[in-house]
Amino acid sequence: MPPNGWVLSGPHPLVPQITQRRCYDTRVPVDVLRGVVMMKAATKKRLARYWGYILVIILYFGWFEIHLDPVVLVSMSSLVVVYCLFQAPVPCCALTRRYGYCRNNAIGLLRGCHLEAHKWQNLRLLVKQQAWAQVGRGVFHSVSGNAAALSALAGIVSASAAAITLVAH
Description:
By secondary structure, this protein is mainly alpha-helical.
């Protein structure tokens, strides 16, 4: 499907080519008539990758502006925590053989990168109480790690407060 304002033309109807001729007519575009919101694939991928951070913003407004029901707040907060622990894009933070941190991208705070030895290294380090500082140094050395860790903490606090509010009423 060509972008809005572009015209399909070509030597054969089965092989269309996009040309840069613009349509300046006053008719309503076909996309609007169908009710389909056209969005670039990269935008859809970005929204799918960062949906948890969008949910954090909605959660903030749900607490302070809209005053949502505590059940909704608990469920949204739980989704934020699950997103941050298992899906948020963060650095890997696994220790390498040279005692540096892996620079690959990981999926979630508890999981590692694509390397098999790094898959669950952060979770294993959290089980050992002595290694918590090491995990903290690894997570907090980048902006994406800070954002995921603080969002997870905010989600835990929000879920706890909403659960207390739900039990109190």
